[in-house]
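Hey everyone, long-time lurker, first post.

I ran two proteins through the pipeline my lab uses and got sequence/structure pairs for each. Pasting them in order. The first:
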Amino acid sequence: MKINIYDYLEESAEKFADKIAIADDKLAFTFSEWHERAERIGTAIHEETGGVIRKPVLVFVDRRIEGLVGFMGVVASGNFYVPIDCKMPEQRIKLIVEILSPVAAVCVTDAEEKILRDIGFGGFVIRYQEAERREAGHGVLNAVRARIIDVDPVYSIFTSGSTGVPKGVVVSHRGMIDLTEWLVGTFGFDESDSLGNQTPFYFDGSVKDICICLKSGATLNVIGKKYFTFPRLLIDYLNERKITSILWATSAIVLIGNSGILEESVPRHVDKVFFAGEAMPAKQLNEWRRKLSYAMFVNLYGPTEITVDCTYHVVDRELRDDEYVPIGKSCRNMEVLVLDEAGRLVKEGEAGELCVRGSGVALGYYNNRGKTEEVFVQNPLHDLYEDRLYRTGDIVRYNERGELEFVSRKDFQIKHMGNRIELGEIEVAINSIPGVTNAACVYDHEGQKIVLYYTSVDGQNIDIVNGVKDKLPKYMFPNIVIRLEGMPYNLNGKIDRIELKRMYENR
């Protein structure tokens, strides 16, 4: 039984020593090179920090493979890594540092070092280029790792707090190991696979790419941002790299589905398409399925707090354009409970909050006991022993097939004209209108108005109300309709609803 995620890298470095493990537009490392560089980074961290363990270490990341070396170097040193976007505002980095008090930071560029100086960083600065030239202390690192157990933290990823203060979700080795075993075992990844990474490394969706690569020996290709600006180049890239599997954010799948590029060219080698991050509208997915009829399509669902994923759905039937793809059933060693406001299991056909228990439930929020205790709670179905679960805040229900369907966020529920409404239901109906490429609703509580933002093909205005009159009751019609040239997205690749509210307030 695995205890430390680093064991996968050691095993793959032995089995697939000369095979390319990770690659970007500029560099490529074999599994043995990745392992050796990680050991050197780990040695530098160990020596500079005086051998501390189980402490947070920042790793600056971009669309480059040095960040992956930094991650494994931190794990090799017995500590846990915290991805930091190199383009993140300094104020956010400062807030994260204040929460964590990290012992060290791994930097690749002079600009990253300057950021640390500007915010008054008090930890040790590990310069990547210098550290990778050190002699690796294999014996010392093996002794350090022998002290780490599977419930120790392996990484912390920060999410946006509702109060503006970021929260650091702390994930254990056990959670990441279980995710790894489930992904590779369920979907049959092996060394013949080539992954096309789209999800930024400061977002937990990228953990899936890392897990699959570490265990299966698959090659992880880091796709540059420019390719998503020019979809034709993206398809060419996928074909040149012979990408077989993509695990992308929903927004990226929607982007390509809306672009029309699949009518001209398809990724010829891709046979597994995974998507996650937001509810997936069937309309854009249907574009993919028409062109890649031989591929497997899988909807993965889960918040950062449960180690990336807790449910999945393999798309196995035709879906109407006006529905969301189901989120399916629970992953291995995870249980999902749908509870009402009183903490009881919902009745058949009822919607409720999705709560999750199992090995993937995170250790909590770093240095934030109050927020941790709000959402990581005792299972309300009994009080016989400690049984922690995570309250996701997502509203779901079971369909007639017994599959879980996403309905809305708990904070997207509104009371409008005396009716309880899920804004997500309005969005999926509008997304199904021909010509609409994306839709998002916010609610003006003071004016009691449903505000719709949408984007369209070629930037054309669309008669939204006529488009939904046969799909929604009148009380769910949007009161204000605003077309955008492009939808705003946050750092995690999700529609930025805070920005939409700000835009509305500034009108």
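...and the second, right after it:
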Amino acid sequence: MTHTPRLPWQVKFVLLALIWGSSFLFMKVGLSALDPIQIATFRIFSGAVILALLARLTGTRLPRDRRVWAHLAFCSLWLTVLPFTGFVIGETRVASALAGIGNATTPISAVLAALVLLPAQRLRPAALAAVGLGFLGVIVIAEPWNAGGRPDPLGFLIVVLSGACYGVGWTWNRRFLADADLGGLSQPTALLLCGAVLALPGWLTWWGLHRDTVATPFSLATHAGTAVGDGRHAAYPIWLALTCVAILGFVGTGLAYMLQYDVARAVGAVVSTTVTYLIPVVSVLLGVLVLGERLGVAQLAGFAIVLSCAVVINRSGRGPRGAGSSPSGPSATR
């Protein structure tokens, strides 16, 4: 018999904000020891391993329908492989705080995905207007008029697109997997197992292209330091970098996915996705206070615009959770 921990959803909600908000710091520090592809792959594999072990211990039954697995594989591409890889690559060029801000665009992309995948769902004018204003906020953050002091354009574009992946993935989940959730660890475990399979070819391809400098797929990268996003570089001890990557995988992926599904099942997707507002706040505070990163006035102003738009979208863009719906609104998983 499966045992469900009696932990209030409010506690899980706060834990999610702290776990996902700190993931950007862990990725930044991890770059001192490992390549972005290594970090993303380990994150997916370790998350899948911990959930698979927990699923086995609790007697969790995984999906059996091939159609369900096919949709889970597609969702996992957008919810694990692409964003996990994109965020850590982006952080080689921009600050972790800025990467967290880029993550706030998830609700915007979810509205656009819903227009295509959920034609029966009506989107109110306020939500559509917030999408346009949200794009304006992204432009303000990017500061295209300031060639000298703006964030790295490519790095910022990568983190924004990575955040947008979640909107696509969770909307697809909502469209095709609303009635396929078996409860417990079933769907999050299956999702990460699919991600592990999808990440393997990219990881091996990366190693094949770098065999002259990387002895094995697990070899440490030879970084002189990891860029902090404002022209400075910081080097961290190897043990600290590896510890951060381990926490990112086992806690920031495996445990976080389990908590996210629990919260959504308890209070619905609308409430659970409001954690999106807290994640970038945590990432900015940790980036500034712990890593010594700096954000300009334009980045803070643009962040305020994007975050306000996310609130409007969440309140006006979706109706209440229906009976039998899955926890598959535009989540903020990192």
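Reply from user beta_strand_b:
Welcome! Quick read of the second one: Residues 9-316 form one domain. The CA atoms of residues 176 and 271 lie 21 Å apart.
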